[in-house]
Amino acid sequence: METKSSDRPTVIEVQPPSPRYTAAAAGAPRKIAIPVDLSDESAYAVSWAVQNYLRPGDAVTLIHVRPTSVLYGADWGSTHFSAAAEEEFDSLTAGKIAEIAQPLADAKIGFKVHVVKDHDMKERLCLEIERLGMSVVIMGSRGFGASRSSSKARLGSVSDYCVHHCVCPVVVVRYPDDDGLHPVPEEEAAITVEAEADEVDVSKMHLHAD
């Protein structure tokens, strides 16, 4: 008797997941990474995550890659920031991150702030996301060094890189207006900042080496 092709069982081939990515076990908290570069786009991604994605029990980490203390130029070689300039920049960064994190505090969602120093923002982001074992990344579509002259239809270079190189799923949040970008430039010790869910008070944040 001839078997019709429609009667034959469908064979579904399931590809194995990346050996570097381990999905969260059932019942385990999701580890959510939100890269922030102190721009309006980063702030919008945090607000979007609070309103549309995060749920009770999620472990949220804001990841910021700040520039190293050495600048390099073809003509003058390396130039170091002064200790005073470093301290002032760190204070400015902490204050801005506190502003960006306010929606998390308002929603009573606990979070950590993970700050690392590197000259290559996009590669270091992917490395930290893998090292910290994140379940998913939520990030803005622009900012992170994107220029105003770039096509509005294109992703920023960092978000595009993360989409193609992160070991876990990446959710890219489109900013409603591409105007008003305020990106911050881009191997030293990593610092983790822990904050309570009630409020963001920079003076009460606890810094410890990672």
TrEMBL record:
The protein, known as: UspA domain-containing protein
UspA domain location: 30-174
Domain of life, source organism: Eukaryota
CDD domains: USP_At3g01520-like (cd23659)
Pfam families for this protein: Usp (PF00582)
